[in-house]
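so my prof wants the structure for this chain in the tokens format not the other one, which i didnt know existed until like an hour ago. anyway here's the sequence
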Amino acid sequence: MQEPSTNNPKSELAATDQAPKGQVVAVLTDLMFDSRLRSTAQAQGLAYQSVRSLKELERSLGSCSRAMVIVDMEVNATSAADAIAQSASHSPKPTVIAYYPHVQTNLHHQAVEAGADLVLPRSRFSTEITGILAAHANPDNKESVRTCS
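here's what i got, hopefully its the right format
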């Protein structure tokens, strides 16, 4: 069985004729959570892609000016921090969100130091993901809405 391509974020967009409202790139290994993020992002009209390496992350960000990167700090603390730092230094800069197990507060500090815009315990992130992605898909400032190329 062949897995869907993760090289083209538009391939993961819900079946519509509209251009994606933005892009979500997730750095995680939890397949169940990946599925939940994918379906939530697609429901908001966002292109979605999950990646497993820094090289894939850089390639997936491409030139999209409305990108959000979501990083699971449990992937590997070093790799997660590197993914955050790489994303935070990308141009155009995406919104970077990290989540961590609430009992591992050291991962919270690592995410903040690496440059994440928002760092939440996994339980809170899980509860708020629909609102977070809806806000990304429909920002208040209509002038800032651009599509991915």
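also thought this was worth mentioning. Residues 21-138 form a domain with the Rossmann fold fold (CATH 3.40.50.2300).
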